[in-house]
Write a structure and sequence with these properties.
40% helix, single chain, alpha+beta, three-stranded antiparallel β-sheet, 11% strand
Amino acid sequence: MLDVPAGASRSVRLRLTQDGLASPQPFAEHDAIFARRMAEADHYHRMVRDAPMTDEERRVVRQADAGLVWSRQFYHYIVEHWLDGDPGQPVPPAQRRAGRNRAWPHLWARDVIAMPDAWEYPWFAAWDLAFHCVAMARFDPQFAKHQLLLLCREWYMHPNGQLPAYEFAFGDVNPPVHAWAVWRVYQLSGEAGLGYDREFLERAFDKCLINFTWWVNREDAEGDNLFTGGFLGLDNVGVFDRSQPLPGGGELIQADATAWMAFYCTTMVAMALELAREEAPYADLALKFFEHFVAIAKASNELGGTGLWDDEDGFYYDQIQAPGQGPRRLKIRSMVGLVPLFAAASLDDELLQQLPIFRDRLAWFFANRPELARTISVDLDIGRQHRLLAIPSRARLERVLRYMLDERELLSPHGIRSLSRAHAAAPYRVEVDHSSHEVHYAPGESDSGLFGGNSNWRGPVWFPVNYLIIEALKRYHHYYGDELTVECPTGSGRRMDLGEVAGELERRLVSLVLPDARGRRPCHGGAARYAEDPAFRDLVLFYEYFDGDTGRGLGASHQTGWTALAANLIERVASARSGG
């Protein structure tokens, strides 16, 4: 027994061996071995994370990377066995076969998977995992690629093409970000000098094609290219539970679900065009996804008049279509209305010249269907070096950005809020089926009973969607360059191009986990221990999400999860600072 008095410490040395040690003094080299292993770890980290970071930045990045490794866990859940019960044990209750996951008897999980964390959430979550893999791509791309392919294998993906969401409800619908993660892991791995793994891209693309088909067939209820899907990972962002039927009946058409699908399309176009460089038939699939994108973007902007766009406010909103009534927009300025910005892709002249089949088909499409070019942002001007596919026109993009970059609305000191701060003074209220529903700004812990009150998308900053906003802004900047500038923050008189706006958001987000002049990290709130105690001041907790006003960490404090994306952003900020 190890007796440690209060205020004291004891060290225990262990050495693991498979076959025993021949040396009569197995700990004689203990300190030397530790020094070698530490030097190896330092060398490895500087090799895979080679941006010119400060010592403080590097400490944070190493903790983010380590957290993703620490959260890898063996996951064992064979649904068929769970339904049948354990041999020699009492037969499970009959209601088990009518309960959760009954439609997933094929799922046979016996794998090491990256979890949101290995304690509170000891199960994988599909859309969390996509972001984990993008963060891991910089230091362990092989494992990241393995994880993305794993969920597409026949013992995970449903025969109908749906990807499993998470243990407590495999059939829930998560945002379709799997293809984006595949594409980014492919790119990040190649940019790091580790090679562009075409076999991985092709295998994943084929499975994403199947998943895309499931989305089109199952979540477009009316066949009009406007999508539902449920809460889509944003939990209580809406005025009522979006995963349940509407009070009084009707259909909820979701601006984010529809935009996620447009984003899916532009990602698949990019992947197909990359594959078509060496295998020409993929150009046909690129065209197929291009036409899907055109149809979805047209519906978002035009169906029924102006689609999901509200010209009075200059924002995209969810819409209720109730029996016997006209469509009604739910005018809540939230992350839901920013997701349409994600679906942006820039096609370069050089690529189109390499793929004449795709180039000529695009020209035919717009020569013979010119009405589509007027309703969506598709610029095929031959005079430019780039072509843009996007849902919002330039004018609409600028109007949405006014809200997004307004500190009285969606812009916080530490990123983009999930709900506008304007709803603090002006809550949104709606009457549905003779009952009143309200959404108001709550920057910290959830004060809504939706989803058990255990999540809050009504004000806090969430890393994954902020990461996607930043990447989208960079794609817009690739097309518009310095021709398009906006006020940032809105009303400040300070104008930035969209690349500079993306950099500003990166700096605000990484400020969550970096110490200020007093040594305090916003993510730790007012806890003096993390600023003053030598045993704690270098420790960073990668919280689930963050207070929309103060940046205080919220939710699960012990997980790295998707907040590990901070490591990628810190690298970018460091590179930008050095002119790289």
